[in-house]
Amino acid sequence: MLREISAGGVVIRNRNGAWWTAAIEPAGDTRCAPKLLPSAKPKKKVLALPKGLVDTGEKALETAVREVFEETGVTAEVVAKLADIKYVYTRAWDDGQRVFKIVSFYLMRYVSGRINVIPPEMRIEVARARWIRLEEAPKLLAYKGEKEMAQRAVEYVRAHGELARGEENRSA
Question: Do the beta carbons of residue 64 and residue 9 sit within 8 Å?
Fold first, then answer.
């Protein structure tokens, strides 16, 4: 079985007394998508957390910061490691192999940048990046492990009220 190691972030920011998190709508692989009949309903939009494969020589934390920037357009700093999620999936492309995947997730605080201002070459991976309410993220995100990471972020923020200081003055 193949193994993949990835990392990503739950990026938070406080605006007007409410906590928000960065989420992405993955673009998907249109090369393999079935053609829709005129009467067919389009698929529901999927919301996910920014994440990606750890490059050779890169640490998971570095990957998380890089992937957040590449997929959302915002720069963030790591606050704490949330957890690792582990799962097995079968590739829907290429060889159809089963893959054991580990994703390290970090709680990150917004520093700068504008959401959804990403390089054109990233549009093959990300259709859109946007802010969603942190408290709603566990319900809105599509994947079980990511829902759990969002819930951990909610709990962390509740336990660490000092995170909010100075957040309202940052632009985006």
Answer: yes
